User: Fold these one by one.
Assistant:
Number 1:
Amino acid sequence: MPFLFEYIWCTMGKKLIQISFLSTILLTIQSCKKLVDVNPPSSSINSGNVYQNDATAIAAITNLYVNISKSDLISGGISSLSLFPGLSADELALYPGATINSVQYYYQNSLTSNNVNNPDYWSSFYKEISVANSAIEALTASSSLTSAVKQQLIGEAKFIRAFCYFYLVNLYGDVPLVLTTDYKVNSTLVRTSKDEVYKQIITDLKEAKNLLSINFLDASLINATNERVRPTKWAATALLARIYLYLKQWPEAETEASSIIDNNALFDTVSLANVFLKNNKEAIWQLQPVNAGWNTEDAKVFLLPASGPDQGGHPVYLSSQVINNFEIGDQRKAIWVDTVIQSGKKYYYPAKYKNANYNDPVTEYQTVFRLSEQYLIRAEARANGAGTGMSGAIADLSRIRIRAGLSIYNGSVSQEAVINAIQHERQVELFTEWGHRWFDLKRSGKIDEVMSIVTPIKGGKWDVNWQWYPISSKELLLNPNLKQNTGY
Amino acid sequence: MQIFATRKIYVVTKEFFKKHSQAVKAMKLIGIILFIASLHLSARGLTQTITISVKDAPLDNVFKLIEKQTDYVFLFEKELIAKSKKVTLNVSKPLLDVLDLCFKDQPFTYHITGKIIALAPRKEEPSKESKSSTEAQNPLIDLKGRVVNSEGEPVSGATVSIKGTTKSTVTDANGYYILTGVNENAIVIITHVQYEMKSLAINGHTSLNATLQIKMNNLDELQVIAYGTTSKRFNTGNVATVKAADIEKQPVSNPLLALQGRVPGLFITQANGFPGSGVKVRIEGLNSIDGGNDPLYVIDGVPFSSQLLPTLSKVLGSSGGNTVQVGNLNYGTYGNPLNYINPSDIESIEVLKDADATAIYGSRAANGAILITTKKGKSGEQKIEFNVQHGWGKVTRKMDMMNRRQYLDMRYEALKNDGISLSSLDQNSNYDLTVWDTTRSTDWQKELIGNTANYTDIQGKVSGGSATTFYLIGGGYHKETTTLPGDFNDQKASMHFQINSASNDQKFKLSFKGNYLVDVNQLPHTSSTDITEMAFLLPPVAPALYNSDGSINWELNNSLKSTWSYPGNPIAQLLNRYKNRTNNIVGDLTLSYELLPGLNLNSSLGYTDLQSKERVTIPLSSTAPELRQNTTRIGIYGNSSVNTFIIEPQISYHKEIWKGKFDFLVGSTIQQNSSELENLYGYGYSTDDAITDINSASLIKSEPTLNNIYKYNAGFARITCNMLDRYILNLTGRRDGSSRFGSKNQFHNFGSIGGSWIFSKEPFISQSVTWLAFGKVSVSYGTTGSDQIGDYQFLSLYNFINPGIPYQGITALQQISLTNPYLQWEETRKFHIGIDLGFFNEKLLLSGHFYRNRSSNQLLAYQLPSTTGYNSISQNFPALVQNTGLEISFTSTNISTKIFRWTSNLNLTVPQNKLLRFPGLQNSTYANTLVIGKPTSIVKKLHLMGVDPTTGVYLFTSKSDPFNPRIPDDANVIISTAPIFYGGLQNSVSYKGFQLDFLFQFVKQKGPNYFYGRLPGSPKWNQPTYLLDRWQSPGDNSSHQKYNADFTYSNSANNAGFNSDASYSDASYIRLKNLSLSWQLPDKMLKIIHLQSLRIFSQGQNLLTITNYKGLDPETLSTTSLPPLRVLTVGFQVTL
């Protein structure tokens, strides 16, 4: 805007006016446009630049892991899958004085679309998926990254996308399949059938397997490290083995699990006390704790103080169903379970992660995939006829039992008995880890049978529809195309 | 020496001495100290008819008679009056004529200054001849002079005439006049519509300057508008003014609260009863569906924040602002920036509503503007004033909660309903019956929020100055405590100054203003709801807060666990403290230079700086003992600042052509706001005492920081044309640019046209409709905009995320939001038509305004389902929101005599908000929250049909299952929380030195009630007494479902409480908002104690509330925050 003032002041030559308007002149000499142009805030980076540079691209993908690792279990981020599905199943018991309503609803299988908001796995997973989608698009288009870095990052993004969809289909059934970044499309999607979602998961994982490094990498994505906190080809393989198991594609499950088990250089079982330590050989993918002063978030919730469970931060302990299922002599009950006696009642609680002391050195990492699960996957695949068949199944099963201080499997060798034994082994091996029990009950079809007994004990009423969590009414309000699960 | 002056406050001014050298000479001779009446001037004048019938009366007796009938007072020395001759009168004539008769034969004459009639010796002994022959004998002179107002500003357009002749002229733009051929002993009369008439004796001078006082007539009161001033009489726009006189009567610490109930179209609510609380301000409804609805605040020409940056604590409550994005997080904003302006420093607050008044503020004033003008000094002798008050506060309302017996009965009944035996109860879940002493009974409302708050306010002020330079310096101290147990308080110290100076030729002028306030607010820290909620939820049988040894009672059970409901003993919660230290500076320098007559250059340079330093301390002692093992002490240290600079050069030109007055204004704005915020979290302190020092934390973590710049640039122009004081046309235009929008949409034009027709001035009306003293119709139409969406919304940004330990040693990056580079202004088209009528010599003023504001291109944080990965995206949406309303106000001077005066003021607003258009609503994310044709603030709720008489459980209207309704399918009851009407009724009564003012505020509305969905009968929660009407046995017809202890019916209770229409009910109220009673000491007493003025007063705020609201306070509509306080103060005001 041309300023009249300047002209007047110059021609008038009045010293007084010149002084009084000096600052104005100085500013108005610039163009008007400049007066309203701003640089991005110094605390931010323009999105266009993020995937053009190795360091910032890595930082953006790394945030996917930070997101999972940072949320505490009670307030319900993705890592609270170790808590809430366990409460919904027969794994965890709720302290009667607990006043946090959401915990109560999950525990008594009394979720409704109005009270599901915390934790709301739906939104947590779709947030991760959206980052993965935009990363995949931007990385694919980017030409300025180091090729090895670019390849690893695309692999990580695809792996995370598959990881999220795996949990979504197992928590909710059919879910909208979001693969692009157009919010207009994504806000009106209908549900895609589970089968289609699984197809996409498998596609993503197969690509991820090819793209991801065979070594554990540090944050440069070039150098190898002993820190097992970034997904590798093996993490993708482990998830793929689990997917095939869930889809009952036994030979494929057997093959994928074997490829990890056979990689002795990188993976091996370790003693019970070491399974959840950081970077132990059993770990396939772990999450580094990021909350300053603490080890894992799991330990903070599950480890009960001397005063026993309480209404605030320690509302849960192990259910009698789990405790009673430990065989005599099972060292897991001794090493992974601890007790506290309060008011004459003995509370058993998960003690897989042992450090909940503020400011202790970080010695434990939250483990997402570990080798023992792969043994159990292979055992189940083999028991269903894949690979070496029943003898292989019993060998895999026994390997896990021996580590727990038990004898080799010496029960009936009928397929049903062995599969039941494997299910039992999964219950006592994988308790309070990532919702395994809830999902195992569902995929084995036993959920109705088990929960119709357990839920009334917990003070609720069971309905077979409740094996699927409801979608929050907020989501239904915002996307009229989205339909609620049956029964809610 | 004795001075005879009655009533009122008189101030000696140096200005008087300078400007009236004639009088000064005379007074020096006799040594009278002269006072000028400055307050409470009445509309009556020298033309007022008075009746006097006396025979041989002493002159001072006649004076007394005149004083009784008029506002005028006489000043004279006793020695002088002793020389007077007795007078005989039997007249009923105008005052001036009567005076002339009285003084005809006296050895002295008189001067009138304001309301003072002063006696002075005659320069020459008056001739005994008749007036006409005197005129003939006296030589004729040329008289010139200048007319200014009490602030030293020239008064243009004032009529200067010679009494008893037809000779007159009009002052020019600089207040100068020349009259030729004037009798040197004549009287000059100066009149102007906005000022009191003034008459001066020439007494042989050839130069005569005059200072005029502004009229106290309601219509002619000065009104501050954007970049200028006007009066209500000639204003084309819809502007309301609240003056210092009304603000000072209210014991409030936020000037916005002084506006409640006083301004039509303005709806103000206080967030809670803590000092420094949030205040929500809405002018003429909600224009934006979910964008900002805050008005623009301008303090002495400098724009001021309408919202604070996010604070560490929620204790202060919301001012209704949008969330602020800091890094990847969205924070709510709490508190209110106007808390950092001292109400005592304010001269007037103008509320600008329609397009005519606001369009010149362009993109920022779609929601109206509030202009705050601070006090300035007046020329005159130094004047020192103190105002001291102390008071007490209590919460406005409490709720009827169950007593001990009722609570226990409810619990036992619930357990019986669920078939739970008392013997099976365990200590962890049913501690109220198993651990606590059930014979105890505590009124928790009294215990936790029932204390008396203290209120102290001390203000001092010094002002004075010469004709060319005058100043005001004020200082204040203010302290408020809370009604909570514990030492919480808010303290403010403030300073205000204003210096105005002009060159001798009045061409160059300078005005320098500054406000500084430091506030230290120490309150309990609140992360969700404050202690008020516990005052309702705690059962009456809950244990004592303290042990007998004074330590906190945790009431441990057998397993050594605290049995207070989460989060614990409320007294322990109060150990979590919040301290906010805020410094606020508002400074402005205005320079102006008169280049040519009527042509002014003007530049204002403004600066504001609001700096907050916050501390939150969470000691271990606030946590229950059993939880301490895994808890760490937390200290949070926040620093934030917002500063604005603004430069506004302007050219204005005033020209009178033929019968019209033209005013032109061209100007430009360059503005920049910088916002910064950083919060540090400290953990791992070794003791509770060390938390205030960040250095003693073993671990320090940073939260995302804010570092934003907002730039704003505009050019504007206004033309005002006033023909014959009858037809007024006002045109404004502005071109605005804001950095908040993408490069393609940074600029936009706004404009308005407004016109007024003062039809009462038309001869055909003034002659035929004599009862109509004033009549004006005004119409305006124009556009304004809103850019209230936060900074950088068009940029797609990634922020660094660091929760504490970097993942693999690197800081992660996160995209903070979905962005839209095409963002634009939200635009509001405002139409307004108003009529102002004055009856009975303008003693009754009636004003009616209709407005219709339509906001389009809505800036929505368009809500998105989670499948997009984000909660929302900012976008312009072609939705259309309409606000219409009727604003009516009556101002009436019911009685006005010399000793008794009664005025009333009633205002009423009937607003309506409506969503007119929302393309594709059914398929949008707003499908279930908005309805075409309904207000934008609706909620959709289930319908609660009642209690099923058979099962005793709530029944809802539902397509599928009346016991288990679905949301959103069954939520079809539309409830609007927008006010249906609101207003205020003010009365002022003064009798001699007494003055009584009271203001009733009334609101008709619906709001959420305390139908809370906390399961009645479950452990730990007390309930309101209306839940006593519950289902007990089959066949019962009750309004509430059966008590339930094991959560079986928690879902239906939850649906009823939170999701049904039963949770909304009438929340209308009438409130005695303000009551003020004062007594001005009579002058005789003042003289004894050597004071110029002393006023003793008592003031009250929120004294009485009449409502049927089922909850705490119908203003806050909250059951979880402290109600506003009822404050009563006593104090005095003294002028030394």
Number 2:
Amino acid sequence: MSSPNNSPDLEESSGATVAEGAAAHGNGGGRPESNENEAVPLWVLAACGVALLIAGRILDLGGGGGLLDYQKMFRTRYERTPPPGSAEQGPPPKEALAAYMAKGAKIYGAKCIVCHGPEAKGDGANFPALAGSKWATGETERFSMIILNGLKGPMSTGKSYGAGMPSQAIPSLSPEDFSGVMTYVRNHFGNNTGDVVTVEMAKAAMTLSAARANAGLQVTGDELTADHLKPLPGKTLDPKAMVDPVTLAPVYVAAPPATSPPAAAEPKATPKP
Amino acid sequence: MSLRTFILALASSFGAAWLSIIVIPFFKMRALAPIPLTQATDGASGIFFPKRTGRVADGARVYAENGCYLCHTQVVRPTYAGHDLYRPDWGGLKDDADRGDTRRETNAYDFYGEKFAQLGVTRTGPDLTNIGRRVETIYAVGGDPAAWLYAHLFNPRSLPQLWQSTCPPHKFLFEKREIKGNPSADALKVPAGKTREWVPDADAQALVSYLLSLKKDQKVPAALNFTPKSTEGNP
Amino acid sequence: MLSTTTTTTDHDSQPLAVIDRSLRHPVMLFLTAGAAWLALAILLGVIASAKVHDPGFLSRHGWLAYGRIFPAHLNALVYGWGMQAGYALILWLSARLCRKECKATGTILTAGLVWNLGVALGVMGILSGNGTGMPWMEFPGFVWPVLIAGYLSIVIWPFIQFRVRPAGPVVITQWYILGAMIWFPWIYITANVLLHCLPGHPVMASAINAWYMSALVFLFFTPVALGTAYDLVTNATGRPVPGKALANMGFWSLAIIAPWAGMQKLAGMPVPYFLPYLGAAAAVLLFIPICAAACNIIRPLWAGRATLAAEPSVRFTAAGMISLVVLGVAMMVLNIPDSTLQLTQFSLSGYGFDTLAIYGFFSMVMFGAAYSIVPRVTGRAWHSPKLIEMHFLFSVYGLLTVMLVTLVGGVVQGMGQEDWKLPWSGVAAIANPFAVAITFAWCLILFSNIFFFVHLAVMWLRWGFGGLPATEQETPGKTVMHDGEDHTEDAAAGHEPLVDPT
């Protein structure tokens, strides 16, 4: 049993209130100090100091631009930082021919397939075949005028198809999609021209089409033979060059291109690391 | 210290915080104005309104009742708060066929139609902000996204790529019933006996509709577009 | 011994015997009902935790699904056990420190039964698939008005007791209890009205919910437990609180800092940008009141460890305070935005914090108090020191496991989550061993509490050692044990028995 002075009887106290009262009355001898002024150990103060420092830094981060700004949901002047240790931006570049054809396949599937069929063989009676078609695989300007304006009258085979093809520029056809579908038809379904109709060429075709004498009307075989029997203006693109698959823009390496062998007229492009 | 002083001190210390971080932001966020779109900066007009098609309210209720929020989050944090945007298919798709990189942060308009944003408690399972997009373009490509999700809910480990999944089976959201005439379109490819089939009940259908509506990768107005300006038009 | 009389000079206060007798039914109701809910909560916790690493376990029925069992576990723990243990202590400490018997026993008992009914309906609501999906507020919407009505009926009397207390200094325990009684309804009504009754922005609703969870822990459970711990220290050592200035600073720093904490859970989410940072700063700063209280409580216990270490009440309280310090350090270190916060935000660390706070700190202090209080109200002594020892040891083992998971497991899991090149199956695999560890911890805690329930049942049902009334054997702050000593001197000294021996 501990000494009576150190363990006040249960019925007399619940600890503090009576003990303080007893101290005030100068109760007995050997009563311990009330320890009211016992010093806080230094390490406790240091730990609390650390907490204050950390909290201060957090408030700094949170207060950039003013604490209690209820309108701001994101950090001021926030821009996404790229993932550390990698320079990837966007989808990886693809070879030009593949990229253009991928785009073209989608347009074909959306616009052309309904009439010309999944194998581009047409249906004999109403819709001409594109597979093996001379007008599709021949000069690019002729091909582009057909797509942009539609076609009426006899084909290269001499056959006529009623009211003809409507223009595919409606409702809208972006230059990327346009060049893509032309490249696709020319390199698929058994056709194998091996070249790429670039976005630049597609844009030129659209300008040319708007400048036609019969702008707004379908072209005819005669007009095509007369005016449009030439390749579209524009720099040719190496089918193996690397392009961005979404914008179809060529992707260049930072260093200047290596000197190209005399046979190649276009600049060599290599993928970004 | 008297009781009155104590209560005053308590009320002011608590009340200051209560007003500043609870009451005032509650009423301000309630009145959050939509962001207007302009032709010049956004190429469209009107207001920014991320549409969600599907049974959002019903499905959110089933999601909440079954505790999905305990293991799945629905937030893609900005790059200063986490690495969520670096994953190729969380904030959107890194290689979307049409639009390229569609990944974006979650914004305050993304939870329209829900009373309580199920932002999530832990990430035991992956984030679900764009689960609808992921199921349609990656997991169930060439098949039926709803069927994939039903199969997942019924028994997550039945799907070969998820054989280690710790997502609990939700058989109780399905019922086994007699085949009436032809098998139901929603019937699971799980053997149920000669004349019976497993079909999702109303809760499962609502939940799957909700999950398929989770496609938060729309184009955002300029005010919420945080792509770094310097990398546009590279090199 | 000091004076053997049982009267005091202040005629408004009453002998402790009368006070303790008046408290018997309310306190025992809350402690035993609370203990029953604790049993259920821990069992549900074990099942829920097992499902995390073994999802096929008990997966046939909807009401056992993880998404329902886990909220049921948490809500039963918080509202079934936590709040009721809190009520028992509030009533006990308030009556004794204000020297006024509990007169409203009828009201309090009815309110207590209503509380238990509300919690039962709530838990059944969750398991039947009608939970609200708001963490810690999953009870269906009709439950919260029932609970707040019960709460107000229970605490109105302690509040009155404080108003009519005898003149004299007010001890720190009374301030903590009073604070808790005022904070809880403010927090609870705010959260429930804003989330259930008023239409608001969905993300802000989530923010208020996060604030509610933190405020409940730091502005109800923490003050009640700290008040209890302070009271135990003064009783056990027989001295008043050392460092009164420190104690006051601890209380007021808690009052000022804690209301701002909680929203760090919403870092990076579309709420006003500064809110999560204020929350994180407050969470870090909570270390200060924790440190102040721990200093004041652990130091005198440590100084008196020669005589006190054997006392179960003291051991439980000390373990609880150490858990609190670990919680404080963990919160300081793991809530730093732009470094550790993004790792722990969605990891097991959050559950670890909750478990440390509610079981590690609050519950251990409550156990310590229960081992001291129950003999006094039942007039029976505890049956066996061995049972208490097992309760203590296995709880400590369980808590050590939880600390490990919180501090280490959560961070490792978070690092895996942030590794964007790692496919998710790899990330999930990292969490697995820690999920198993949590199940193991809850099994240990379940095991430890079986001893507690058995012991409590023996006490309550008055099996075995009917024996001597409690007062004749005890000294304040000391758990009453059957220790075989001769106490005839005490009996001869004419102490009034606290309870009617029949």
